[in-house]
Every structure is written in C-alpha cells, then in structure tokens.
Amino acid sequence: xxxxxxxxxxTKKEIIIEKAAKLFREKGxxxxxxxxxxxxxxxxxxSLYNHIQSKAEILQAIxxxxxNEFISQLDEVERSNEPTLKKMETIIRVHIRMMLDxxxxxxxxxxxxxxxxxxxxxxxxxxxRSYRKRLSDIIEEGIQKNxxxxxxxxxxxxxILSAISGIESWHRSRxxxxxxxxxxxxxxxxxxxxxx
Amino acid sequence: xxxxxxxxxxTKKEIIIEKAAKLFREKGxxxxxxxxxxxxxxxxxxSLYNHIQSKAEILQAIxxxxxNEFISQLDEVERSNEPTLKKMETIIRVHIRMMLDxxxxxxxxxxxxxxxxxxxxxxxxxxxRSYRKRLSDIIEEGIQKNxxxxxxxxxxxxxILSAISGIESWHRSRxxxxxxxxxxxxxxxxxxxxxx
DNA sequence: CACAGATCCTAACACTCGTTAGTTTTTTTT
DNA sequence: AAAAAAAACTAACGAGTGTTAGGATCTGTG
Lengths: 196, 196
Description:
The structure is a homodimer.
Chain A: H1 6-27, H2 34-41, H3 55-79, H4 84-101, H5 103-111, H6 120-144, H7 153-165, H8 167-171, H9 179-192
Chain A binds a DNA duplex through residues 2, 5, 8-9, 12, 33-35, 43-47, 49-51, 54-55.
C-alpha cells in the first residue's frame, strides 16, 4: 500500500492534470492524445499510467474539482443573510473570478463534460441542474420579496452563467480590456439588468 | 461537367450536411465519424465522397453559412436609421431566433469552429472579430449620443453574445420554459442592462 | 551496500479514423 | 435498348488511438 509517499505521487499526478488541462482546452478532450500529454510532461505515454488510471480520470478530476468549488461557494452565499441583489453580485463575482483565475479548468468543465464516461456524466449533469435550481430559487425569492425586477428566474440564471462563460473568448483575445475592467463592467451589466 | 443535375446533387449533399450537423452537435466534430454520418444517411462511408470532398468541408459549409447569415442581418441593421437601443434589440432578437430556429448549425458554428482547417480557420476568426467590432461600434455610438448607459462596449458585446449562445443549454433541457418566454425575458434582461 | 518499491522505458495489441482505388449497381440520356 | 453518367458497394491503406505487459532504471530506506 503506497500511502507514505502519496505526497510525491499526487504531486506528479497534479502536474499531469495541469498539463492535460492546457491541452484539453487548446485542442479539446478528444483531439488531445495521451502521447501529446506525455510529451509536455516529459515522459512516455505509457508512464502516465503509473499516476493515473485513464484519460477519462483526468477529465473527471478537473470537472468535479470545479463543480465542488462552485457548490461550496454557493453554500456560503446561501448561508449569508444578505439581500438578494448582494447575493447575486457575490455569485456573479465568484464566477467571473473563477473564470479569470482558473480559466483552463473552468473552460473544460464548461465545454468538455460531455466526454465524461457514465456514471460520472449523469452525476455531473445532476449536480449542474441542482446548482442552477438553487440559483434560480435565490432569484425567485428576490422577486417575491420585491427586491429585484420581475424576470423569469430560469432565463436570468441562463443569461448570467452563459455571459460569464463567454469570458473564455476574452481570455484568448489580445486583451485590450483589463481583467478589472471586464469584471466591473460585466457585473454592472448583469446587476443593472436585475434591478427594478 | 455536372451542372444540369446539380439540383439533385446538392440535395443529397444537403442531407449529408444536415445529418452530420446533428451528429457534430451531439458528439462533437472529432467524435462523430464518417461511418456514423454514413449510417444515419443510410449509406456506406465511402459513398459520402461522391457528394462531399472531406469531413472538414461539411464543417466549413455549416460555419460559413451561419456566419454569412449573421453578417447580412447586421448589414441591414446598420443601414437602418433606428436609435441605438432599437438596433441592439433587433440584433439580440436575430441572434436569439437563429439560436432557436437553427440551433444545430449555430451551435456548431459557436463551438466546433476550432476544427476548421487553415486557411478557413483564420478566415472564420477574422470574420468573427470584424462582426464583434461592428457591434461594439454601434454601442459606442449609442454611448456618445447618450442613448445608452456608459458601459465598456467590448464587454457589453461579449456579454450579449455569450448569454444568447447559452440558449444551447435550454434547447437540450426539458423546456419547462417556452421559446417565447425565453426570448421575451432574455431581451428584457439584456436591454434593461443597456438602458441609462 | 543491498534490497524494495516507485517510476520509467520499449514494444505491442486491438481498435478506430478519414480517405482512396477499383468495381458494380442504379439512374439518366440518347 | 444502348451508352453514359452518377452513385453505391467492398476492400484496404496508413496513421493514430488508449491501454497493457514485461523488463530496465532510478531512489530512498535498512
């Protein structure tokens, strides 16, 4: 049982996941081969299997790490007793910053989840549905409390999450707009649209 | 020279493109094989090559058809002398309806363009950059004319286009929200966010 | 130093991929 | 009905896929 040196193991595993993430984002999960990944790690393809079990496991690790991070941040927001608009602003900022700071991982979780093997795929989609439902409930509560404008909550959630996921495109651009400007203006846009 | 029966030819070609589009959307360009496409068309894989030149050609046809449609709609809006807010609403509605009516093609154009071979890839990206610049110019003009709120035009464009492209997720859902409700609410959200 | 275990390598397997060649069948034209 | 054209088929190519087996090498502990 290799428990003692698990620190070194997980370190190498993390390197593999990090390099793989970059390639998955650049070329897509299907087009990035194990040999591609191995090359950027500086090793032969077969050697990767001393640290991971399969290509799919890398994708799983990325997708569920991101999902868990979003969920635990939402837990926190839900526990707080802020007004609805403040809650939504916090959530929006969390999403924007995740997109700015962990671009690679969030992008993969957004775009490559369909390559997850079952039962992870169903699991992931259930988590996502549940997450959006919770966001939608926050908005619905805000409408009933007359704190935000009357808008179909599902559509508002869809609009917000999709808008933010588009930051991917900024990330690949020549960045004439700074990250701060981007965050400030997108928050402004998305929050103004919720106000009464 | 086969020009006379070009109608029957392009008809079969269109069938292939349509079936391929469905598969590209479901499984991604890379994961959808020529043999998959052939099966849904009801033919052997090799027979496809009597009507198309390559797998990539199918992707090109889809991406550029969509791009051209958006561009020509934007031409029309630019020629009109409506106020900025009205222009933006028209563009937003065009995008939403394209997403509703031509889901499969628009989705592919949004998500699978990276698999375009050169020089089509550069071409496509140039067209896209130019398109976004034109949208951004409309917003900038609106700000200078004091018709809409002071917001970074690039960020507004990014937000609008990304939000709409998220309708993809609605399309795959159980649709407890009707298309009309979706369009009305998304327009409301995105336009309110632009108003002063 | 010697042993153990972790990590690497080479080689290969069993597929699948897009595409081409060559032939046969179906459809259209004369 | 004969000839020509279009479209289908079978078979195969070369390349690339994720993954496994088995052995070599490196690393750290006793």
